[in-house]
Amino acid sequence: MAVVLLAGPLARAGRQVQVVSPDKRIRFTLDVAPEGIAYDVAAYGRPVIGGGRLGFEFDSGAFSRRLQVGRVERRRIDETYRLIVGKTSEARACANEARIPLVEREAPFRRIDLVVRVFDEGVGFRYEFPEQAGWSAYTMYDELTTFDPAGDPLVLALPLPSYTSTHEGLYTEARYAALPENQLFDMPATFDFGDGLFAAVTEAAVRDYAGMYLCREEGRLAGKLSPLPGRGRVKVVADSLPHRTPWRTVLIGRSEGDLIESDLLTHLNDPCAFDDTSWIAPCKTTFTWWNGNVVPDLDFSPGNNFETNKYYIDFAARHGIDLHGIYGYAETPWYYDDGFNFGWPGPHADATRPIPCLQMERIADYARGKGVGLHLWVHWKALYERLDEAMALYERWGVRGMMVDFMDRDDQEMIRIQERILRAAGRHRIFIQFHGASKPSGLHRTYPNEFTREGTLNYEVCKWARQVTPDHDVSIPFARMLAGAADYHLGGFRAVRRADFEPHYVNPTVVGTRCHMLAMYVVLENYLGSLCDNPMAYEGAPGFEFLTAVPQTWDRTHVAAARLNRYVAVARRSGEEWYLGAITNREARELEIDLGFLGEGRYRAEMWLDESDPEADPNRLVRRVSTVGRGDRLVLPLAADGGAAVRFVPER
């Protein structure tokens, strides 16, 4: 850690403070003037954010004008850390930091520190509220931060109807000036400034605070905090100081791939909170709710019963699938609920009381004997009311992971609830998959048992709507996935052409080729791989061998080719092997992949490629094998709505 450098004595009312990245290519400039505080971000000699505003509205009055800058503390950060789950196993955070005290010139003389870190890959800043005389708590009505992009960049963002949302929808691609005013947009939002300059705005380390959205107002891109339920204007309450906000982050790169590869969000999160992480292992699971608990036409019926679960446990054991997921049957949970209404439990729901016909103890014993763990779905409210009791019971059953569902909020109260669930799960060696939840914020560095979050329109929608297509799939890596792992309900193995697609609640089909689906397991960041279809769809099917082989965590991530909202090819290394997934939208294309990311020596390249006939069954594929090295280029033909998957195995 570098030596702390101190600025001069208490400064005059107007002041400019600059912080630059270690490579000098990114610059953050803070301007403090009597009329207010503002900031600019520039990169590679070009403006990215111009005249962004800072400040707050408290019940005790605004904090934005007539401020002076206290003594600025600077330091250099150079830290290498390991990620238990992540797009890389080891990350290096290098940044220049400035702590800039902002002090009111008039009573009550409140002080808020603006902490700025500038990395070679972007900027993070947050507000910290130190202990101080005369101000020991606060009620916040608004945070006044804005993120005003320079010029008129192309924007990729997700419009939302309200703060209470599943964060699911189709992305808007438009010029910034054409975005509607007073429309909420989810973070991250991605900006293409042209001529090789890209940025994305999101937040990191969202803890004990409200989640933030974006809204274009009077030409500004304002941050909007999710309000506390039933509290009117109140967004955040701090009962004591010190307190701090999440990091407001601007990822910056010369290509779309730079944004996808960035570890900026984990750089800005705290180190791992667990002393023992030996039990944390990314894995794959069945997810029978998606297909409808489909079973063969044998001597038992699908449902909340032992035989249905035994059938899926046997399938998982045959193919080395780590976990079997238990949801229930149709919309009936596996536990007692006296009034479940798709989204809200009954008044006496009890997530420690399995439905008797399920025979949960018998299922747990059978799965244990087969070497298969359990993965339980539960409504967050039914769980939270008996949190530690439920977690202790699940641990005894052999539950390794949980899908916690229907949160649909990211106000301060819900953010606190989610962290308490992660802590309780950690005490009982259980990982968490947040469903019906807001975006991630890099918290998997601190709580590596947070494996994934939904917060995106995904293949579950194929059960009842037509919205999810390869065009939508391609949007995800360039926007939602920049925030972190995305639960996407992968594994639909019955693909149809767009014109033939019809929603089916049981045994749903998907749009896009089989190879498009295989590639998604590599393209998307996700530490809980789901195999959502039924065993009959998988066993003996071309490409199933790729699903059983592909890892769920990675040592390195490299974007081999990308064009915003059109196509992407992502390569990831696990141990000595590399995997590559490439997907395209409705347009067929060829991608030429530079294999310079491979290690020394030659590799056996096992390729799963689209059938060349565009009118062929989209489930058909071609498997090829060749020998390649890092000096070679690989040409991947992608059909319309197609993809390609490649496994690179070192030759001995």
Q: Based on the coordinates given, report the CATH architecture of the domain at 5-267.
A: Distorted Sandwich
- Low-pLDDT parts are 1-13
Give me the number of helical elements: 12
Q: Which word captures the global form?
A: globular
Average pLDDT: 95
The count of strands amounts to 43
Describe the largest sheet. 14 strands, antiparallel
Q: Which structural class best describes the helix and strand composition? A: mainly beta
Helix-residue proportion: 10-25%
CATH class of the domain at 5-267: Mainly Beta
Terminal CA distance reads: 42 Å
What Rg is obtained from the alpha carbons, in whole angstroms? 25 Å
CATH level-3 fold name of the domain at 5-267: Beta-galactosidase, Chain A, domain 5
| Beta-strand percent range | 35-45%
